[in-house]
Specification:
It is built from no helices and 11 strands. The chain has 115 residues and is mostly beta strands. The chain is globular.
Length: 115
């Protein structure tokens, strides 16, 4: 499974960004997909996940009500709509796809929230 993330950039506090991740390769084996992030000097942390059907989603407390994860199985994509961005949302965001017991990672896309 290969994952290609896009959509990062520079945004002011309170602004919005949409991240997208396209999966290719052995996509038939993908179960859950989601997003993680890693801020400078910190460990990678889970942001949001979506089940294979998209019917079940999970959000970390620090993004609830601000971020929305969505999945398009027809296009093999997972997106993360990020609203009301805060300084502390600055991080490299990674797309992830579960393939059985294996987690496949995308290359990461940088989100910088700055005034």
């Amino acid at each position: 499974v290969q994952l290609q993330a896009s959509g990062g950039g520079l945004v002011q506090p309170g602004g919005s960004l949409r991240l997208s991740c396209a999966a290719s390769g052995s996509i038939f084996s993908i179960n859950g997909m989601g997003w993680y992030r890693q801020a400078p000097g910190k460990q990678r942390e889970l942001v949001a996940t979506s089940s294979s059907s998209g019917g079940y989603t999970y959000y970390a407390d620090f993004v609830k009500g601000r971020f929305t994860i969505s999945r398009d199985n027809a296009k093999n994509t997972v997106s993360l709509q990020m609203n009301s961005l805060k300084f502390e949302d600055t991080a490299v965001y990674y797309c992830a796809a579960a393939d059985g017991s294996t987690i496949n990672w995308g290359q990461g896309t940088l989100v910088t929230v700055s005034s």
